[in-house]
Amino acid sequence: MASRNFYIHIILRVTFITLTALGLAFLFTKGFYVVCFFMLGFLYFQAWQLVYYINNINRKLAYFFDAIKNEDFTLHFPEKDLIESFQSLNQSLNRVNALIQDVHLKKQEQEQYYQEILKHSNIGILTFNEKGHIIFSNPTVEKLLNYKPLNHIKQLAQVDKGLYALFEDLKPFDQKLYQLTNEREKTQLAIKSTSININKQELLLVVIQDINKELDEKETDSWVKLIRVLTHEIMNTITPITSISESILRYFKKDDEMVNADTFEVKHIENTIKGLEVIKEQGNDLMSFVQSYRTLLSVPEPDKEIVEAKKLLSKVLVLMQQDGVNNKVEIKLDITPENLELFVDSKQITQVMINLAKNALQSLKNKENGIIKMSAGINNANKKYITVTDNGSGIAPELIEEIFVPFFTTKNSGTGIGLSLSKQIMQLHGGSLMVHSVPDKNTTFVLTF
């Protein structure tokens, strides 16, 4: 309605100006110069009124938008204006102002609601811009870092210089673990980051969590599993030694007295020799077991170098073929991009890949059309990875958590340290080794660097 009245007023005013101009031109040609002078003044007055009318509306709109920009909703236009079009315009502006004010209030309520959630969260959350200025930090961050108020990441240098260096180099999608040490305690922090864009400003959102409790529970659980496996393996080795030793001892001692050598039978001597041989074998097995444990504890630091992924996987393929791969098993290589390079210890990663490939071959032992696929590439988090996938028997869900425990094995032979050693090698590379398995369908081991 306001726009309609506005158009009508503009059309009428332009029409009057046009008619006045035509009348002025007509009178000027007839020689009525005095009348023309007054007509010229009237034409000027009409033009001025038109400009004033439009500027008045423009000023109102400018005031209105400035008030909205400054979040000032107290501006109110009089609705009893002398001009009907202004009255309609003022009513429309006041209605829009009220609607925007209502939306603004709801937005503030929602923002306050989210602020309260973030304040009471037991996970630390902060955001900072590319210059290091901290835009937001909740109380949990200040409590974890024992520092407030936080305005710039440079302040973290006063908490821990290593933590400041970590934040300074932090990139989107990074995941870091950092042990923060102060005079009171040690805190293990899990730090994750992601990129967000607010008001055309690129910010880094960082989530910080104290994982001491989770690590303690995980460590206790790992020790329980390890002790269970160690106890099982040692008991399996020692039990036959104890039993055979008791049997042999009965040949040489009765009623706590030594047996006379003249009473020995050939059969007793033969059994003693066989028993001693078994004890020797069990002793050697136990020594091998202990040696495996020492191997697990003495993995050297990786000697990293730039290695072509294609060359590395091709080498693993050749080594598998030398070990005699079943002709029924098809091995595929997939490297994207083809010139992908890895910064790794070639010998250690080859050892890991050989171990995973042998496990895959064993799972395909009695399967027709077995396939092993070794892939390398870059994931969505810009991390380089290698995967080993087979379509074999898979791993039962209840064993997924057990397979990386040292000395745990489901095979009849082997020490059970292959996967735990592989995982340790990946951790020394600053990466991880994960597994996903669907029994009787596929199993995938993922090495992420």
Automatic annotation (TrEMBL):
GO terms for molecular function: ATP binding; phosphorelay response regulator activity; protein histidine kinase activity; protein kinase activator activity. The keyword Transmembrane applies. One of its GO terms (cellular component) is membrane. Keywords: ATP-binding, Kinase, Membrane, Nucleotide-binding, Transferase, Transmembrane, Transmembrane helix, Two-component regulatory system. It catalyses: ATP + protein L-histidine = ADP + protein N-phospho-L-histidine. The chain crosses the membrane at residues 6-27, 32-54. Residues 229-449 form the Histidine kinase domain. GO terms for biological process: osmosensory signaling via phosphorelay pathway. It comes from the Bacteria. It is a multi-pass membrane protein. Residues 110-149 form the PAS domain. InterPro entries: BphY/WalK/GraS-like, HATPase_C_sf, HATPase_dom, His_kinase_dom, PAS, PAS-like_dom_sf, Sig_transdc_His_kin-like_C. PROSITE patterns: HIS_KIN, PAS. It is found in: Membrane. PANTHER family: SENSOR HISTIDINE KINASE GLRK, TWO-COMPONENT HISTIDINE KINASE. This is histidine kinase. It comes from Aureibaculum algae.
